[in-house]
Batch of 2 targets.
Target 1
Amino acid sequence: MKRVLTYGTFDLLHYGHVRLLKRAKALGDYLIVAVSTDEFNKIKGKKAYNNFETRKEMLETVRYVDLVIPEKNWEQKADDVRKYCVDTVVMGSDWRGNEKFEALKDLCEVVYLERTENVSTTKIKNDLHL
Ligand code: C2G
């Protein structure tokens, strides 16, 4: 059983998120998503439209997702990898080379998948406002 883990806010869940989750699941058998809490989003400088409970619930409906856990801080990742016996951490290419993930290479495989072009939560918010 190959276990995959990914992190994110996943606000206003869109096909860029879903395509990442689909490709992440294809790298193993069990996909864990650590979704940022509202408090951690403040630390990340993000204000999500959907609150943590809603974002968690929406992710739990995605067929590729097996477990959703809270992402409360930057520092929990190594503990998460150990606690959940993770083989591979997956992130979108905007995180490629980021020390927060490169540091995990001693513990597990780290894979960066190409971001989906022309979709983002910010773009959706702007387009809808227009
Ligand atoms: N993503 C993507 N394509 C998009 C938009 C997002 O592949 N068009 C990916 C991102 O690269 C990320 C995941 O979807 O891997 C979730 O995106 P965000 O919710 O924006 O995540 P972020 O705020 O970058 O949080 O500790 C890590 C952070 O929690 C990551």
Target 2
Amino acid sequence: MRVKFFKDKDLTSDFRYNRAMKKLNKHIILGVTGGIAAYKSAELLRRLQDTGATVQVVMTEAAKEFITPLTFQALSGRAVRDDLFDSAAEAGMGHIELARWADLILVAPATADFIADLAQGRAGHLLSTLCLATDAPIAVAPAMNHQMWHNTVTQQNLSQLADRNIHVLGPAAGHQACGETGYGRMLDVPDLVDSIEGIFANDLLAGKRVVITAGPTREALDPVRYLTNYSSGKMGFALAEAAVEAGAFVTLIAGPTVLDTPNKVERINIETAVEMNARVLEHVEDCDIFIGSAAVADYRPSEIQTKKIKKTNDTLTLELIRNPDIIKNVSALKNKPFIVGFAAETNDIIAAAKNKLVNKGMDLIIANDIGRKDSGFDVDSNEVTILSEEYQEAMPLMSKKLLAKKIIEMIAKEN
Ligand code: C5P
């Protein structure tokens, strides 16, 4: 007998697996419920990781009858969550935080019983509670006997899920574990991964060119010190990701941050406001939309000392000069793009934002209260009001990622 040794290339030659290598870099909760297809969820987890996803597995009690939590723990490198009342796990990342952490909840396999729970909005266990508490998209991959699939109640439950924009992936038809044939097999893993790509993608800004500024700027005082602010860049990076997912070509001009560059984004790193201004003006020509989400320093030291400033006196006076106003400069262009800005304020938020909208020639402004702990600088959530000259919409507290999607939807309506 001849044994063929496969090279790595051969092992990944299935084009469906190659497609799955696209980097999505998402936080995914993989919900596993109690059906025989649960054995495929371990493979699904690995393929999701190939897309750059960080996967947190959440199992129902019934799922543990089919596959052990240890399998998922070993593959994901994270302890499986299975209990709403687990005080140790809750002390780490509580279920509400976990629901917020997710970019997607994917339940695969989803049993008829779980689908019924979801349709009714029940919260009797951790997975169904997470589905109620999240603002991320939810997808279910049904897997059940074909009679159960065709049952009127199951079909009614599924149409309720579809009405609530819950994605139903599959099922496929074919041979079933129960020995019968028909609809009810969980979709194959590569097809599931492909469908997930589709959940994140839309064509709201197809073919548009978008330039985004993000993060803080850093204004040097001397070789060791600089002036800066608390901006993390999270909002601007989330906008870049949402714009790419909406089909745009995105250039992200970013101040110093620790964030990873979103997939398919052209990133240009800068330090100072003057550099940011120059790079924006280089790239903004021919762009359709400009989003200024950077916290640009309004002033910089009038001189950068070449030697470290010594503590010789009791007081030290710094002379600062104005930085260029980047949004105003973009606004002054002959072919100005659609301009979106931010107003980070601590008081009279709406009035200040309206002023800025007009003074800086913006089309849309997002006003946020940076005095709050759960909103604004360096946190993952934001509560904002979106204003244009014609309208004003107060948004509830939500993750910056979801807010970015909503802002992109609003921009798309005007473009
Ligand atoms: O700092 P200010 O509140 O004026 O910022 C409002 C908007 O203007 C933000 O979108 C910010 O990115 C932008 N900005 C700018 N250039 C500056 C200061 C702020 O583009 N020098």
